[in-house]
Design brief:
The chain is of the alpha+beta class. Helices cover about 20% and strands about 35% of the residues. Strands 6-7-8-9-4-3-10 form a 7-stranded mixed β-sheet. The longest helix has 20 residues.
């Protein structure tokens, strides 16, 4: 004898006046946001929707529900009492798009995608979907000055080689651009410098970025000779521009040698022991299981 089917989980929503209620499967596709001209006129903005088969959507209070033929291919539902926009469905299709606004604001969903973005008006930004790209992250961080409680916020990036030797030299630099255009010029130089650094065998890693118009760089090297070899490449071009043109508002550079280089510690994922891995051994001394790979020093 077959076991009874497990009831499907549902989400429930209602129009503004509550005369119409809707239930649909919790696994309905969405959230999808439509920016088409019809949705703009009918909703006063984009239309955020959950998509499901018509047969899986149940309406209560249907005597208050009206369908309007909004285009040759689609019709839309609204409550005849409060005017809430409820749904959209293709005339010849089997799916229905139900307004997200009918459901609890705590609905555990994110926007999956936007459609008809080419018809979006210019006075709002479409919700982003998918992972943030590096260019988007930097653009957001540099869009305007962000400060709070004496701290300035911006962005940073790290580029590391596979060199696991301890650094013999650390270089610290800050540089201030006169304006946003000059900042982009500095960043262009920095991108080429990082490429040159990664080709140098004695390079360990770099952390660099901007807060507002102030850039910063921390680089780690096996020794000063390795640093000088890398700086003799594109960095030398940037230095010529710095001293030969009206380029950069202010700058400071320095080279440091460590007083003490401490151990690298890695936690065993099996037993939780904190292990000294300076010699790059790969087995936990306490339990014998494999340790995570030892990071580079910087």
């Amino acid at each position: 004898m077959s076991s009874p089917a497990t009831p499907r989980e549902e989400i429930a929503g209602s129009c503004h006046c509550g005369r119409i209620r809707v239930r649909m499967p919790s696994e309905a596709t969405g959230i999808v946001v439509c920016h088409c001209a019809d949705c703009q006129r009918l909703h006063g903005n984009a239309f955020a929707m959950l998509v499901a088969d018509r047969a899986d959507v149940r309406w209560e209070g249907e005597e208050h529900l009206r369908w309007y033929r909004s285009s040759p291919a689609n019709e839309r539902a609204f409550c005849c009492e409060c005017g809430s926009r409820l749904a959209k469905r293709p005339v010849d299709g089997a799916r229905v798009m139900v307004s997200v606004g009918l459901f609890d604001r705590a609905l555990p969903r994110k926007v999956l995608k936007g459609v008809w973005l080419e018809q979006k008006p210019g006075w709002y930004d479409a919700p982003r979907t998918g992972p943030v790209t590096p260019d988007e992250l930097v653009a957001t961080a540099l869009a305007g000055p962000v400060e709070a409680n004496g701290a300035q916020y911006g962005y940073a990036l790290r580029a590391a080689s596979t060199n696991k030797k301890p650094p013999g030299v650390i270089a610290l630099t800050w540089i201030t651009a006169a304006d946003a255009a000059e900042r982009e010029r500095i960043r262009a130089h920095s991108r080429q410098n990082v490429k040159d650094f990664l080709e140098e065998p004695g390079f360990v890693s770099i952390v660099t970025g901007f807060t507002g118009l102030r850039g910063f760089t921390v680089t780690a090297w096996e020794d000063e000779a390795a640093m000088k070899r890398a700086l003799a490449k594109h960095h030398a071009v940037a230095m010529k521009e710095l001293f030969g043109e009206r380029f950069v508002a202010s700058v400071w550079t320095s080279v440091w040698t460590p007083t003490r280089v401490n151990r690298i510690w890695v936690r065993c994922t099996s037993c939780g022991a904190l292990e000294d891995v300076n010699d790059d051994h790969r087995a936990c001394a306490k339990c014998g299981d494999a340790l995570p790979e030892r990071p580079v020093f910087w």
